[in-house]
Amino acid sequence: MKKYFAGLLLFFSLALFSQEKNFSEEFLMKKFPAGPALNHQDSVYLMNLPEKVFPFYHRDEILPPFVDNSELPYLRPVFEQQGASCGQAAMVSYNFTYEMNCRRNLSSDIPENQYPSHFAWNFQNGGDGWYGVSYFHSAEILRTCGCMNVVDYGDFYDDGKRWINGYDVYYDGMSNRAEGIYNIHTGTEEGILALKHWLYNHMGEQASGGIASFYACAPWIIQVLNDTTPEGGKDVVCEFYPVASHAMTIVGYNDSIRWDYNNDGQYTNNIDLNDDGIIDPRDWEIGGVKFVNSYGTQWGDSGFCYLTYKCLAEDFELGGIWNKAVHILEVDADYQPSITYKISLKHDVRNKIKILAGVSQDTSDLLPEFIIDFPIFDYQGGLHYLQGNDTAEILKTLEFGLDVTSLLSNIQPGLPARFLFMVDENDRFGEGSGEISGFSLMNYIEGQQEIQVTGLPIPIENNTRTLYSLVWVPEFEPVQIATNRLPVFSANEPYSFQLEAQNGALPYKWELVDQYSLSSSEEIFPEIDAIHVLSSPAVDTIMPVALPFSFPFYDDEYDTLWMHINGYLLTDYKQLPWPYLEEPELMFRSTRMIAPVDYDWFTIIPVQGDGGWVELNDSCATFRWLLSYGTSVNPPKVNFAARVWKSGKIEFLYGSCDLEGIPWISGISAGNKIDFLKSPFSGAEMITAGTRIVF
After folding, report:
1. Is 45 helix (H, G, I), strand (E, B) or coil?
2. 629 CB contacts (<8 Å, ≥6 apart)?
3. Beta carbons within 8 Å of 567's beta carbon, 6+ residues apart
4. In what order do the strands lie in the sheet with 611-616?
5. Rounded distance between C-alpha atoms, residue 45 and residue 91, angstroms
6. In the Cβ-directed half-sphere of 123, how many Cα atoms lie within 13 Å?
């Protein structure tokens, strides 16, 4: 197996003052189950979250001494979560509801303007509602699929199994979208100031303030502010146990609340409480934020509680919040899909299937030139019918919608293109069966048009990919840069120029395109063994290799790559464990990597010759893996390589590889969830020895 750095969970005792709330830890643990403790992969995901940039021109803006956004109409009423859905309660039902209604100036008091926790949670909770789900994964659902309101969903809660049925409700949800999830680091005075500006007026972006979610331990023990201090008698959390198992949402701040951490009878922000020779927020006894919980109005002050600034900045092991970070959503309140797929699918074991969409400009292509996948219908939901209830034949069939507008970015308007719907079935033993019952392309570019296909239903082929397609001529006006020429610049002088664009919908967003091309050929597999890098499953699971040249990859250059036992190269040190709730696709898209064969259960058996090697010269570096997996006496093996060139070219090379039955990923990723390119062989059960893929 792999090497994991087991962190010693240092459970410190919290002094029980006479002002403490009369909630026992045992009672709260039973009534409000926490989600899973966040693991190292979630930390890696956080590393790749973009930081919310605090505009420099707002830093000198005078802030009020307190802000309470719970008094605004955009925060939905306090509720009690069901099951281990705290991440979705915090990020979807509180945060997303608030931010969407703040943008639209709507009240969150009515179900039409509230968003359910369980639409996102049910796809990723294991299928029976037993497991918590990181709200990072749910934010990806909000970004790519949207979320329907509580009225469309049918209720705020359900049994934790249901996948909602009906194209119309999926379509209604597509216009309620998160633009992205962002990170504000609260470990410094500057970070806490940035958070306060977000809470005050969205860092100058809106008249009203925003809210922010965070992870920490469930607030099992809360204190009460001294009656002689501001907000005296109100509840406050002064420190957490170091287990990040619960999500909560910050709704305001108050610079005057205070807690006497060192019991010296005074409240200060200028005494070095931790004796580290530095005065920073970890030494503050004055000021804090207000947060809302999902334990109902019987908890805290009608569901609310204060949290000290010190707790936001403190090390996690010493009572702070997880990763000294809070997370905010930016929403796209005006989004409307241009084209969607309307699908009717039937299957009796839903965790055996994954759905994808694709397009090819060449209508003679029977395979897609471009593919998009989704964080829903992705080998999820346990051993159930598609609708989650296994009591009737009709519940095997699910009608749903997919927003495939991004496919238009890869084709030309006015020309025919082939649009494809795909179902991948991972079912080696034929345990499930199903069919594609219906497939239409819905065109909303001007009005509404349904382009239907004939010849359905067709059976889903066992343990492989089933495709169905239609040819359509899309008429649309793509966004185009209208600026034809840039002014001449002078070297070593500041330079900026505003580009103009046309078509599409405002506001425009600009991103640099990092586009790789891909080709395949043949090459005799290089059985290199020059430098032994990976030799043990216990201590050498990730090792740095210094390159004799600077290697350009996406928007940066690297002189060192990290070789990982899981079959990929990283650009910096990240110790990745098992994927969180079986979401390897999201990890791949969220981590900068070069992955010829990415699979989490590879190991090294030294007596069988396994290991990792590298061969270096002035123009390229070749990395080779020989790895095993499984528990048999003679386990299956894979022999593959990656070669990186000084020019930036990347090659994947394959020897003898037994890949049957494992969900492996192959491709390159910038780690921003947008720029990645998968190999055409990714996930295949076999690949011919001598195959060479070139990026």
Report:
1. helix
2. 599, 601, 602, 603, 635, 636, 638, 662
3. 595, 596, 597, 598, 599, 602, 625, 627, 638, 640, 664
4. 519-522, 691-694, 650-657, 637-645, 620-628, 611-616, 531-534
5. 16
6. 25
C-beta of residue 694 within 8 angstroms of C-beta of residue 677: no
Maximum Cα–Cα distance for the chain, whole Å?
A: 80
The Cα 121–Cα 319 span in angstroms is: 28
C-beta separation of 236 from 306 below 8 A:
yes
Give the separation between CA 511 and CA 503, rounded to whole angstroms.
17
User: Residue 95: CA atoms inside 13 Å, Cβ hemisphere, count?
Assistant: 33
Residue 576 pLDDT grade (very low, low, confident, very high; cuts 50, 70, 90): low
Average pLDDT, the chain: 90
Which runs of consecutive H residues, i.e. helices, occur in 61-134?
86-88, 97-104, 118-124
Number of H-type helices and E-type strands within the chain: 11, 33
3-state SS assignment for residue 139: helix
Return the structure tokens found at 209.
Answer: 């303030």
pLDDT at 605 over 80: yes
Between the alpha carbon of residue 471 and those of residues 358, 364, 526, 655, the distances in Å are 12, 10, 43, 38
Number of Cβ within 10 Å of residue 237's Cβ equals: 26
**Is the Cβ–Cβ distance between 417 and 474 less than 8 Å?**
yes
Q: How many CB atoms lie within 10 A of CB 608?
A: 12
Read off the pTM: 0.81
Strand partners for 450: 442
Q: Are 114 and 155 in contact (CB under 8 A)?
A: no
pLDDT tens digits, 232-274: 999 999 999 998 889 999 999 999 999 999 999 999 999 999 9
